[in-house]
Write a structure and sequence with these properties.
By secondary structure, the protein is an alpha/beta fold. The protein is 34% helix and 11% strand. The chain has helices at residues 15-26, 43-54, 71-82, and strands at 6-8, 34-36, 62-64, 90-92. Strands 1-2-3-4 form a four-stranded parallel β-sheet, with no helix packed on it. Strand 3, helix 3 and strand 4 form a beta-alpha-beta unit. It is globular, with a radius of gyration of 12 Å. The mean pLDDT is 94.
Length: 105
């Protein structure tokens, strides 16, 4: 798809398996700017799949990951991705069981 710029997958229970498939598509998508994945229980494994995809995708600018049980380890995957991806300018990680050891610095 070369025209879709906003994708809202809010609260559809996609889980880590669904994120794996979506992440494969994100590696090749160069149109999407905004992705809402709030409340989908993607967990740490889903965060890893997404982070790997976003190391390659340099188009997405907004990512909403509220309430996905990502935790500190998933946050580390996201932080590592941000060392490579310089186009994301807004990531919402609220309500993800992240404590002070997982805060992005």
């Amino acid at each position: 798809n070369h025209t879709l710029v906003y994708l809202n997958l809010y609260h559809i229970s996609i889980g880590a398996k669904g994120i794996r498939h979506l992440s494969e598509a994100l590696k090749e998508n160069h149109a999407l700017l905004y992705l809402d994945l709030a409340f989908n229980d993607i967990g740490q494994q889903g965060a890893l799949y997404l982070a790997e995809a976003l190391k390659v995708n340099h188009r997405l600018t907004h990512l909403r990951l509220i309430g996905n049980k990502i935790g500190n380890i998933g946050t580390k995957y996201i932080a590592d991705m941000l060392k490579i991806n310089n186009t994301l300018n807004n990531i919402d990680l609220g309500d993800n069981n992240i404590n002070d050891e997982g805060i992005l610095y």
